[in-house]
């Protein structure tokens, strides 16, 4: 950890997550009279990163006055129940859409953590004699009680001499970029930026400018493929159905599942894929339908299109029904979380169907380093699941053009709307190569000062 010394009483920004990885977004702002966090996410991927979730928080949680949350994905929100369990008692300020999604996602995350701990104890695959979840359903419920909705475009006082302003970031429902004013300085945290050409979500609000910009860099070293995702998806579905196989689609329950269903719906309407059963085996994804219906201003779909998406698939609610899918066999399509094969019901389907070469696994988005999805993309064909090795004989297809993140060109184009250059740009939320590649492009193409901060680093905000 590197820390830049600040003067007593000065305002500072400390990078407690997403500084050397694409997960665990946590940014601590400190003044002489207040502390706030921007995002409070889970670390995912490599074990050395996941272990940070179990480490004591960098400052006493009870000393934090507030959290400003950019969006609901767990790498931005998923540590909140643990923070509350450790003593945080402030408010969580966010958009209405994010608050609605977190009510689904945090409770689901807690349930999965509890379920995994019970499974580990029963089958003795954990190195701990009595494995415990990172947090419980009760912790998640207490965290949700702390939420306060901030209307879009309205400045909200979140702590002593600190205000927050939220503007849409695209990406998923409720996603916002956060403009934080502290010590006379304006900071902008992009959160996860969406795409101008996303088939589901509306584009991000243009960058209004700031003294300090903290940007994501998930796709900072690449541009999205020009191949149309529907064409790629249709090809793999047709191939797999001809083999009488099963198409497994790991997909994030919020955003990606809807995008996959949208493409499958259009393919089905045009008669470009066979009429085989499509299952959505994610209670969380099923619950999100009401949120999409309640926020038509944020996405491109009509009420009729939303209805058709969810009518297309057969929802799977119970664990018993999920287990039955593993006995059914093909042809069929199963969409299930998590999108990076990090946990959830998709792992049981992986055990059942990955060893059969008739089947296919379709990766539809970014795969963070250290996840099973990343290992599959790199060519590995043996995955460790619930303490056992699973041999992957199924076809593996990656469709990165389905990502809901802006690519490097998209991020730079968003930045170009600024009325003037920031004093500093901090490039975060990306793997090291992605972050440094974007940093170099910001410096060369925009002429702005940019750098990649280290985990735990602290920088002064005043002066």
From TrEMBL:
CDD domains hit by this protein: TTHA0252-CPSF-like_MBL-fold
Alphabetic keyword roster: Hydrolase
Metallo-beta-lactamase domain ranges (all copies): 23-228
Superkingdom assignment: Bacteria
Location of the Beta-Casp domain: 257-376
Membrane-spanning residues: none
Signal peptide span: none
Alphabetical list of Pfam families matching this protein: Beta-Casp, Lactamase_B, RMMBL
PANTHER family: CLEAVAGE AND POLYADENYLATION SPECIFICITY FACTOR FAMILY MEMBER (PTHR11203), INTEGRATOR COMPLEX SUBUNIT 11 (PTHR11203:SF37)
Protein name stated in the entry: MBL fold metallo-hydrolase
Native organism: Microbacterium croceum
Organism ancestry: Bacteria, Bacillati, Actinomycetota, Actinomycetes, Micrococcales
């Amino acid at each position: 950890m590197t820390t830049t010394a600040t003067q007593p009483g000065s305002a500072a920004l400390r990078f407690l997550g997403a500084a050397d990885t694409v997960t665990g977004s946590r940014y601590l702002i400190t003044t002489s009279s207040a502390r706030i966090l921007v995002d409070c996410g889970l670390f995912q991927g490599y074990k050395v990163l996941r272990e940070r979730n179990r480490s004591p928080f960098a400052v006493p949680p009870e000393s934090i006055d507030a959290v400003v949350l950019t969006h609901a994905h767990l790498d931005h929100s998923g540590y909140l129940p643990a923070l509350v369990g450790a003593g945080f008692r402030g408010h969580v300020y966010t958009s209405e859409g994010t608050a609605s999604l977190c009510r689904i996602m945090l409770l689901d995350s807690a349930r999965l953590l509890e379920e995994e701990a019970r499974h580990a104890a029963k089958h003795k695959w954990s190195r701990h004699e009595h494995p415990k979840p990172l947090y419980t359903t009760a912790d998640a419920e207490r965290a949700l009680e702390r939420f306060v909705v901030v209307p879009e475009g309205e400045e909200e006082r979140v702590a002593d001499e600190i205000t927050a302003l939220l503007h849409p970031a695209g990406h998923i429902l409720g996603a916002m970029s956060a403009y934080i004013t502290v010590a006379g300085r304006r900071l902008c945290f992009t959160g996860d930026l969406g795409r101008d050409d996303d088939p589901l979500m509306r584009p991000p609000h243009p960058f209004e400018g700031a003294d300090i910009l903290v940007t994501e860099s998930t796709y900072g070293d690449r541009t999205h493929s020009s191949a149309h995702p529907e064409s790629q998806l249709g090809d793999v579905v047709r191939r797999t159905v001809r083999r009488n196989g099963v198409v497994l689609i790991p997909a994030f329950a919020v955003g990606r599942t809807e995008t996959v269903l949208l493409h499958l719906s259009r393919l089905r309407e045009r008669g470009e894929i066979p009429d085989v059963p499509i299952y959505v085996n994610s209670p969380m994804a099923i619950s999100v339908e009401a949120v999409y219906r309640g926020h038509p201003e944020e996405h491109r779909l009509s009420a009729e299109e939303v209805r058709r998406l969810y009518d297309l698939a057969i929802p799977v609610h119970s664990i018993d029904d999920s287990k039955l899918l593993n006995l059914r066999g093909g042809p069929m399509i199963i969409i299930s979380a998590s999108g990076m094969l990090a946990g959830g019901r998709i792992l049981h389907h992986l055990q059942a169907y990955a060893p059969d070469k008739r089947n296919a696994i379709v990766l539809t988005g970014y795969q963070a380093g250290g996840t099973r999805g990343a290992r599959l993309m790199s060519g590995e064909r043996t995955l460790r699941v619930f303490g056992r090795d699973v041999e992957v004989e199924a076809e593996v297809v990656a469709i990165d053009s389905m990502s809901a993140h802006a690519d490097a060109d998209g991020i730079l184009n968003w930045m170009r709307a600024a009325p003037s250059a920031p004093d500093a740009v901090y490039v975060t939320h990306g793997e090291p190569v992605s972050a440094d590649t974007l940093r170099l492009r910001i410096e060369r193409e925009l002429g702005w000062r940019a750098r990649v901060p280290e985990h735990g680093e602290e920088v002064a905000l005043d002066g």
